[in-house]
Amino acid sequence: MTFLGGMSVQKLLPFGTPQAVRDETRRLMDEMGRDGGFIIAPSHDMGGDIPLDNMVAFIETVRDGDM
Fold first, then answer.
1. Distance between CA atoms of residues 8 and 60, nearest Å
2. Long-range contacts of range 44-53, CB-CB < 8 Å, 24 or more positions apart?
3. What is the C-alpha separation between 54 and 61, in angstroms, rounded?
4. For the chain, what is the domain count?
């Protein structure tokens, strides 16, 4: 079984700080991805209200595997 999603597009991505986005991304990667079977992604379509800095924080954290 593989899980897809996990990042909040209603609260965290539009209203959180870039550091909060990095922290939650790391937490999800650590807890959900520990033994594989997890594709980290926004929970569904990303709205236009997400600040670019938060998008970059999410993408860079996933890309770098920064846990």
1. 17
2. 44/5, 44/9, 45/9, 46/9, 46/13, 47/9, 47/14, 49/14, 50/9, 50/13, 50/14, 51/14, 53/18
3. 11
4. 1
- Contact criterion met (CB below 8 Å) for 64 and 26: no
Instruction: Report DSSP state, residue 63.
Output: H
Helices marked H in the chain: 12-15, 18-32, 52-64
pLDDT 10s digits, 24-49: 999 999 999 888 889 999 877 888 89
Cα separation, 64 vs 9, in Å, equals: 21
DSSP state of 5: E
